[in-house]
Amino acid sequence: MAVSVLPWLLGLFVLGAGGPALAAPADPSAPTSELASLAGRAAALPQNADAQFELLVAALATPFPERAWPIYRRLLELDPHYPRRAVEHYGQLVRETPHERAAWLRLALANDLAGRPREAKRQLAYLIKYFPPDADTLAYAGWVAFELKQSAGAMALWRRALALQPDHVAAQWLLGQAYLRQGQQARAAQVLGSVEAARTQQATLGL
């Protein structure tokens, strides 16, 4: 069975730039109050795996995705079978309401966590084809493509994400790592320098 790309992704951020412990991180695409609410709900319901999953989704879209790592571990501690159950739940939900973008994204993440990256790729491809483009979906699709050893496709998706949102930190970081693996040091330094600048600015603003 395939292994989820999520621990690898979070490991890159932890090794590359250590962030503070889990807080209520800021998501540029969602109100800060919404993220604070999710963090508060997870803290108030520490045994609720659904609350942890929703916080995980939000944390992965922030400038500090390494903060998702303790949430991911907590989720699996609470329910080692949660990814499989989430696949069943969101699979049913997208069949009933195929117009709900959030359900498709959660189904893709659940499949990835369950070690089914090809299924995750299929759902992300559906999102990219039938919904308005957004950088988060493109960046995540790149992660899954990389997991499937499709490096060229992954880099193309990260470039598309950055064309839509030039300051998308996850896409910048992963593209920079890809350049490093190819020996393109100058390009990597340029991209990764932008990442550190963006993260420092967000941290300075208290996000």
Write structural notes for this entry.
There is one protein chain. The protein is mainly alpha-helical. Helices cover 72% and strands 0% of the residues. α9 packs antiparallel against α10. The longest helix is centred in the C-terminal third of the chain and has 20 residues. The radius of gyration is 16 Å and the shape is globular. 41% of the residues are buried. About 10% of the residues have low confidence.
Question: What is this structure, in a nutshell?
Answer:
By secondary structure, this protein is mainly α.
Morphology call: globular
Q: What fraction, in percent, of the residue positions are helical?
A: over 70%
What structural category do the secondary elements indicate?
mainly alpha
Question: What string, H for helix and E for strand, traces the elements in order?
Answer: HHHHHHHHHHH
The end-to-end distance, rounded to whole angstroms, is 37 Å
- Most strands sheet: none
* Overall pLDDT metric: 80
Total number of beta strands: 0
Strand content: under 5%
Number of helices: 11
* Low-confidence regions: 11-31
> How big is the Rg?
16 Å
